[in-house]
Amino acid sequence: MGDIHGQYHDLIRLFEMGGFPPDSNYLLLGDYVDRGKQSLETILLLFCYKIKFPENFFLLRGNHECANVTRVYGFYDECKRRTNVKIWKTFVDAFNSLPIAALVAGKIFCVHGGLSPSLNSMDDVRNIMRPTDVPEYGLLNDLLWSDPSDTAYDWEDSERGVSYCFGKKIVNEFLMKFDLDLVCRAHMVVEDGYEFFNERTLVTVFSAPNYCGEFDNFGAIMSINEELLCSFELLTPLDHPSTNLPALNKTKGRRPSPPMAETSEE
Q1: What are the structural domains, with CATH classification, of the chain?
Q2: Average pLDDT taken over every residue of the chain
């Protein structure tokens, strides 16, 4: 599952479509908060599933699971308005411990953003010390921020102003070096909810339909069977009625901390 961005009603629709945990196993690729109106409900549900079904439910870190980004794009403001800044800081502590990448059956490399010129060994990912903030450059930054590009030959500066864009040559070299079949990533809104790159050796999955109420895109889930055959289930855009969101636990006194994420993945 790709980006959710606080679209809680659509997250429920995705689970209704794909099956609720633990009946279905899930690997989510990050960007759970910001932009949407219900980031708190979204991240709390995901963390609860991780705690309740740790062997069936896996959460990777996205570029929005970061203090600096959430300050700008909505999650900080939502926490401050509906709870308090201490709750936001607790979530940031959890974000700083989230795993960065995952391998499915040793053949599918899953990450939020993309590849990195600093990635020479899978141990480079395993050796990223957590908890950690996202640095301004380097391996962790690239894994969360980089994008594939039809116009890039190898590595080019990204129009985002962060990290790189990488071309087909880089994908082919990466797959050959590590004996992989596919790179699965999120990070970019795509019209059909999923989009292949470089003759189906990389796929972008984006799971928030009608992203920000502006794009009229589908949301998608990629399903992988035991033979590693991939298929896609699509969620149609849906207009949601405006919701008056309640303040959460705005009484004085001790406030319970939200659940923390498991960090056993690599």
Answers
A1: 8-235 (3.60.21.10)
A2: 92
